[in-house]
Specification:
It is an enzyme of class 1 (oxidoreductase). Keywords: NAD, Oxidoreductase, Tricarboxylic acid cycle. It catalyses: (S)-malate + NAD(+) = oxaloacetate + NADH + H(+). It comes from Symbiochloris irregularis. Pfam families: Ldh_1_C, Ldh_1_N. By secondary structure, this protein is of the alpha/beta class. It folds into two domains: 118 residues, NAD(P)-binding Rossmann-like Domain (Rossmann fold); 156 residues, Lactate dehydrogenase/glycoside hydrolase, family 4, C-terminal (L-2-Hydroxyisocaproate Dehydrogenase, Chain A, domain 2, Alpha-Beta Complex). Helix content is 43%, strand content 18%. It is globular. It starts with 8 loop residues before the first strand and ends with a helix. It binds (2S)-2-hydroxybutanedioic acid. (2S)-2-hydroxybutanedioic acid binds next to helix 7.
């Protein structure tokens, strides 16, 4: 974000260690002014005046854990950060990276509703890394130049709720079903692949930073009035009946989300996968809502 030309002020917040990170990053010769804020008492100051807030806070997975296993630790972290956003920058676009995204985004919505400042067009769960992974793996498999590859990824951001639509990938390439199944599995397990490789030392940080910055850049371009900016994101949606949050391609505009796309035609395998993940998504959403309403 320091090298993003749309950024004038970059406020870095964490409970500890931020002054060092801020000093380090501030030496990059780009126009954004950098300030570091450490500790809860400085959170309000960090958020004041922000147009966009990116929230990657929370504990990472260890091998063997699902993203949902992080709920206990991360739900309250997200709740408290969102409360501060609702108080200090209620009109900001919010990008939620903290896992489990399938639940933390509904938590954020409930908290903001409770504060009377919820705008469904300003709240987005970041699923860009799933798209980035699907593009990488598809390009590797097909030999297509990776810069030309596009793969829609819909659903949510955990396990089987991550639904890459290789039938709609471009450039189109016909592949046997077992190859598509393996590509789908690898995309769904992308985060786990990194968690295992890091062997207890965390989850994806570098590729996630790339994907998070890509998505944030799209939000900023939309806020600045660039037409036709579109990215996948997990947002309040009625694209799938019975699910209040779902990821499809969204249009980003001066007020945040300016439109939500349908997911197009699925083949029978993809339709089955979508049907199969609906109960998990539904229960992750309900779990987040119940937590935010103080019921768990
Ligand atoms: C990812 O997709 O890499 C992140 O959600 C982190 C994780 O736990 O997998």
């Amino acid at each position: 974000m320091k090298i993003n030309p749309a950024v004038t002020q970059l406020s870095l917040y964490d409970i500890v260690g931020t002054p060092g990170v801020a000093a380090d990053i501030s030496h990059i010769n780009s126009k954004a002014k950098v300030q570091g804020f450490a500790g809860p008492e400085s959170l309000g100051e960090a958020l004041k005046g922000c147009h966009l807030v990116i929230i990657p806070a929370g504990l990472p997975r260890k091998p063997g854990m699902t993203r949902d296993d992080l709920f206990k630790a991360n739900a309250s972290i997200v709740r408290d950060l969102i409360k501060a956003c609702g108080e200090h920058c209620p009109k900001a676009v919010l990008n939620i990276i903290s896992n489990p995204v399938n639940s933390t985004v509904p938590i954020a919505a409930e908290i903001l509703k409770d504060m009377g400042v919820y705008d469904k067009n300003k709240l987005m769960g970041v699923t860009t890394l799933d798209v980035v992974r699907a593009r990488t793996f598809y390009a590797e498999k097909t030999g297509a130049p990776v810069a030309d590859v596009d793969v829609p990824v819909i659903g949510g951001h955990a396990g089987q709720t991550i639904l890459p639509l290789f039938s709609q990938a471009s450039p189109g390439h016909s592949m046997p079903e077992d190859v598509i199944a393996a590509l789908t599995q690898r995309t769904q397990d992308g985060g786990t692949e990194v968690v295992q490789a890091k062997a207890g030392k965390g989850s994806a940080t570098l590729s996630m930073a790339y994907a998070g910055a890509l998505f944030a850049d799209a939000c900023l371009r939309g806020l600045n009035g660039e037409p036709n900016v579109k990215e996948y994101a997990y947002v309040q949606s009625n694209v799938v009946s019975g699910l209040s949050f779902f990821s499809t391609k969204v249009k980003l505009g001066p007020e945040g989300i300016a439109g939500i796309s349908e997911y197009g035609t699925l083949n029978s395998v993809e339709q089955k996968a979508l049907d199969a993940c609906v109960p998990e998504l539904k229960s992750s959403i309900e779990k987040g809502v119940a937590f935010a309403q103080g019921k768990v």
